[in-house]
Amino acid sequence: MSSLTQPPLITLTTDFGGDSPYVAQTKGQILRTCRHAHLVDLCHRISPQDIAQAAWFIRHCSIAFPRDTCHLVVVDPGVGTDRQIVLARINLQYFVAPDNGLLWPLAEQHQPDWVRSVTQRQYWTDPPSPTFHGRDIMAPVAAYLCNGVPPENFGPKVSTLFRLPDISPRKTQQGLEGRIVFIDAFGNLITNVEALKCGKLPPEKTIVHLPRQGVTCRGLVTTYAQRPPGELIALFGSSHQLEVAVVNGSAAERLGARIGDVVVVGN
Amino acid sequence: MSSLTQPPLITLTTDFGGDSPYVAQTKGQILRTCRHAHLVDLCHRISPQDIAQAAWFIRHCSIAFPRDTCHLVVVDPGVGTDRQIVLARINLQYFVAPDNGLLWPLAEQHQPDWVRSVTQRQYWTDPPSPTFHGRDIMAPVAAYLCNGVPPENFGPKVSTLFRLPDISPRKTQQGLEGRIVFIDAFGNLITNVEALKCGKLPPEKTIVHLPRQGVTCRGLVTTYAQRPPGELIALFGSSHQLEVAVVNGSAAERLGARIGDVVVVGN
Amino acid sequence: MSSLTQPPLITLTTDFGGDSPYVAQTKGQILRTCRHAHLVDLCHRISPQDIAQAAWFIRHCSIAFPRDTCHLVVVDPGVGTDRQIVLARINLQYFVAPDNGLLWPLAEQHQPDWVRSVTQRQYWTDPPSPTFHGRDIMAPVAAYLCNGVPPENFGPKVSTLFRLPDISPRKTQQGLEGRIVFIDAFGNLITNVEALKCGKLPPEKTIVHLPRQGVTCRGLVTTYAQRPPGELIALFGSSHQLEVAVVNGSAAERLGARIGDVVVVGN
Q: What is the pLDDT of residues C98-135, one digit of tens each?
């Protein structure tokens, strides 16, 4: 997987919290096995045990990374149950995660080449902590993989991934009903209404309505700068998701919006 | 720019927010093009769209880095307008940023060797998102540069950088009037009064006054440890800027101080 | 210390605050001297000047890292006093820190191979800032060490490290009285009651009592998943410390618990 000039890339996405000792220990564990890995922090502030949020995050971020990147995704409320741990090849990259739905939205978009159940204990720490499989099973598996251990060594193929409940927008009489799935640092409200899935919306005629807030945006813009500062706008953002924003301001603050709030798209 | 033992260094300074998917995507985009780059996070919590804050940050932090480091600085409220994107050589390092003033304070201190407008689309993603030039234009330009693409390939030289309003301290009857520009994690109040620019102040006779708070420090110290815990002190800090601090405590909390508050230095 | 495929590892643990310019400058300073170092952020949000917290953190995190890792630990309220700066070899790793107790708990557990006082100014920046020895003395010392400068060059051996007050649990009539030393992002309450030090506790009969909260857990579990969501449990966690948790919830929130709160373990 690696060469002298191309150290293996391992990214980390967790709900451990920023600056957490759990993140530090996970990094150490990876580097003990794969001393030359290049670690890239993606996110450690997934809301605790929020599988859907982490699944959204890794689907929208992994795509930017190069071939053969190994993504370690640890949001694991089921640690200690019989949930499996999987190693998967999806979109020419590797993913190591508990099989609790974290990889489902990504796998829906990009058919996995294969999924394996991580069962071979010689690649785990001995014994693994019963409460921290991220550090003691998933981290060393990612590291051994980047050292060149063949994927088939980690465990047998499985035929399916754990499926998350469908949270796609649904068609209603008022229009397409989606939800806010992420609020960024600018206060932009990112929704699950995706350009590819909702057909071509006519930019001038599309109406975006937030029922709880009682506000409506008429028309879609292409970029924030098309409207004056302070104006409420709707647009398809940089990951092709519908977002509601305030030009050079915070829509979240202005509207008191929260993750989960309903957004209706009609015309 | 690089050798086997010296991977190219690319630093990131943004207002995207910590743990943001925008940071993750930007990192992925860099690594897709320059697989062996060493990424160094400087700051992702610049206040949203606060160009002056980011300009202050990069001026005071880039100086510590080695020759040929490439600094990506993305605070870009004008994305989608006709503001340019620039690649500049300043103080033996490279900078990629929107030309909105981010590089002005640095360039005032260190005359740029050259500044280029980033116009050659073959080094951008195709097509770039109209709302995320950090990921789709600036990140790949930094990465191609670190791959050895000659700077002249990215676009033509320009003769000047966008200029920020002057926020230097001004002379008044009461003394030199500066402002708090940064409050650190210890609650120290860092001002824009700089040792090199305000002449030699006599340590014993200098008086630092905060009008809004109605407090005064008499005399400058050299280090926090010169005074007992809890005492309010003024000193020139590790970046040669005047700061007001409480020994082993928080001046920000004690005084209710905020960025922008006035500080008057007299004798 | 390093080879082409194994870049030197330098970790950073500080109280500078996340996204702080002090962290950025420290990273730059390291990379100026050791251009090929691999920097790993452990934690920059140690509570300001909280030596005991940082000492706990580095003891529990350094252990996960590979041989020869160099850990830079900077919580330095005594900067500018006559406190020493030390370079130590402990548990086959290197540590650079002010000698104020930061390394004491680790050294209690793993007898240091040697400790040196950092006195040789040719490895410092010239002159070092009187208020920022992390950037100007400790960072370049760590970097020169990783460049292969022999440890003995940095200064003479010293025979002891500064000792922190003992904060081990104490035996009382009610049982072993410990304290909460860390609250993680899940709201789990981590205590200083350690499996190795308190003898074998019978899982079924052990009682964990929080006097300030007036709550009691009867029995120890092995993993969160042994009890239903919402239940208050006690267990030895992934670093072998007794913790109090709520299954899939936050014990900190439920109980209003804080660092320093008393926990009594009896049977």
A: 999 999 999 999 999 999 999 999 999 999 999 999 99
- The phi and psi torsions of A106 (rounded to 5 degrees) equal -65, -45
Instruction: Return the residue in A53, A65, A240 with the most chain B beta carbons within 10 A, the one to mutate for interface testing.
Output: A65
The better pLDDT of the pair C146, B267 is held by C146
pTM of this prediction? 0.95
Query: Alpha-carbon distance A38 to A21, whole Å?
Result: 19
Mean pLDDT over the full length of chain C? 94
Select from A91, A56, A70, A88 the least CA-distant residue to A159. Answer: A88
Q: Tell me the DSSP string of A102-115.
A: TTHHHHHHS--SEE
Residue of A nearest to B125 (CA): A64
Residue C155 has φ and ψ, to the nearest 5°, of 155, 175
How far B170 CA lies from chain C's nearest CA (Å)? 25
Q: Which two tokens stand for residue A73?
A: 């995704």
The ipTM (two decimal places) reads: 0.95
Residue A44 tokens, joined: 């450690």
Pick from C4, C64, C184: which is nearest to A4 by CB? C4
- Each residue of A195-236: pLDDT tens digit? 877 777 788 899 999 999 999 999 999 999 999 999 999 999
In this structure, how many other beta carbons lie within 10 angstroms of the beta carbon of residue A140? 22
Q: Which of A16, A155, A163, A7 is nearest to A88 (CA)?
A: A155
Per-residue model confidence as pLDDT tens digits over B98-115: 999 999 999 999 999 999
Report which of B264, B267, B263, B233 is spatially closest to residue B247, judged by C-alpha positions: B233
- Segment B81-109 shows an average pLDDT of 97
Distance CA B265, CA B218 (A): 10
- Cross-chain residue pair C19–B44, CB shorter than 8 Å: yes
CA C107, chain centre distance (Å): 12
Best residue in B61, B106, B241 for a mutation probing chain C (most C CBs within 10 Å): B61
Task: Give the mean pLDDT of A240-258.
Answer: 96
- Cβ contacts (< 8 Å) between A20 and chain C: which residues? 43, 184-185
- C248: nearest CA partner in chain A: A77
Flag if B36 and A5 touch (Cβ within 8 Å). yes
CA separation for the pair A209, A263 (Å, rounded): 6
CA C94 – CA B202 distance, rounded (Å): 42
Q: Does any CB of chain A come closer than 8 Å to the CB of residue C62? A: yes
Q: Give the distance from residue B160's alpha carbon to the nearest chain A alpha carbon, in angstroms.
A: 24
- Smallest Cβ–Cβ distance between C15 and the set B6, B66, B185 belongs to B185
